[in-house]
Amino acid sequence: MDLADHHRLDALYRDPYPRCARARAAPGLTFVPELDAWLVARDADVREVLRRPEDFSSANALRPDVRPGPAALAELARGLGGFRTVLSTDGEAHRAYRAPLNSGLSFARVNAVLPYAAARAEALVDAFAPRGQAELMGEYAQQLPGDVIGRLLGLTEEDARTAVHGSRRAEELLFRPLPEEEQVAAARDVVTLQHLLDNYIRERRAHPRDDLVSTMTAALVPGTGDLTREQRAEAVSQFQNLLIAGHLTTTALIGSAVHHLLRDRAQWELLCAEPERVPAAVEECARFDAPIQGFRRLTTRTVTLAGTELPAGATVFVAYGSANRDPARHADPDSFDIARTAPAKHLGFGRGVHGCPGAHLGRAQLHITLELFTRRFPHLRLGRAADQQVVVRPTLIHRSPQALHLSFPAEQPGGHQSR
C-alpha cells in the first residue's frame, strides 16, 4: 500500500460513519476499495454474519494494513509469535483458545481485581488533580487498563509496563506506516514483549500461582515437561493477543466516552447530577462510538448476503460501529444520549462466538472512571478551544482520540477543588 492509499484509508478510518450511512441506504452490499472488502453495514446483516461462523471465517480478522519490511521481519524472527489466535480461528481451534479466556476473565476473577482498579484510578487522578489540567489519554486512559491487565495476568508492575509498551508497538508495526528504522525499533519492542511472556509462561508452568498466566498456561500447554519452541510460540501468541485486546480496547473506550460526554455539556451535567445513570452511560458510549468498529471475515463458500452473491474467498468487513448507528435498530442513532428510553442492545463488544470475552472488564473500568470523574471533577471541560477539532486515531480497531486535553478547578490538599 503506497502513501496515497494510506491517506485515503486514514480518512475513512478517522470518520467511517458517512460511508457506513451510505452503505446502509444502498441496496445489497457496498464494496469499499480502501478496505478491499464488502462492507456489511446494516445491523440485521451484521448479526447474520456473526450467527454464521461456518460461512464467514475469522481467518483474516486481523489482516494487517502494513507488511513490515525485511529488516523488521528479520528482527521479528528473533522472537516467539506469529501463531493464530482466538480472533483468527474457527471451530475447534477457536474453542480451545477461547475456553481459557472465558475462565480467566470470568465475572468472579474480574470482580476480584476491581478494588485494585478503583484504587489505581484514584491514584492516577491524584497525580494530576492539583494542576487543574490533564491529557486524558497519556495520563489516565492508557495507564489504568494496562495496570489492570498486568495485575490480572500476574505481572510485576515493571514487567506490566514493558508488556503494555510492547503490545502498543505491535499494533503500530502492523497498522501504521513507519520509516524502516522505526519499524525495526518497534519490532525489537515486540520481541522483548514475546520473550518476557515466554519467561512467565515457563515459570508459571513450573510454579503456578493464582493468576491469569498460570490459569491460561495450564489450559494451553498442560503438563510439566519442557515445551517445544512451537508450543512456546503458540502460547506467547495467545498472551500477546490478550494483552492487546485487554488494555487497548478499554483505553479507546475511556477516551471516546469522556470526549463525547464533554462535547455535549448537557450529557455531562446530567451524569454528574444523576450518577445512577453511569451504567446506561457506559452502554451508550460503547454504542455511539464503538472502540472496535469491526473485523474482516472470509467467505468459506458461495453465499448470498443482503441480496449480494459472494463467491468463496470473498472478504467482508463486518462493521459493528455501523450497525450501532442503524436507524432500523436504534432510534435517532447519530445522537449521543445517555438517557435513552428502552435502548436496544448494541454490538459495541461484538456478539456470538467471537463476542469480546473481556467485555465485563472493559465496562467495569469505564464505570469506575465515570463515577470517579463525575465525583471529583463536576466542572470538567475539554481543555482546548471549543472550536478545535479533537483528532481521532486513524484506525478501526481501538478507535479513540489521539489526545484529549482536559481542564478543571485545581484540587487543593485534601481533595477539595478551588473555585
From TrEMBL:
Signal sequence coordinates: none
Keyword Transferase: no
Coiled-coil residue spans: none
Keywords recorded for this protein, A-Z: Heme, Iron, Metal-binding, Monooxygenase, Oxidoreductase
Domain of life, source organism: Bacteria
Keyword Iron belongs to the record: yes
Family: Belongs to the cytochrome P450 family.
Name by which UniProt lists this protein: Cytochrome P450
Source organism of this protein record: Streptomyces cremeus
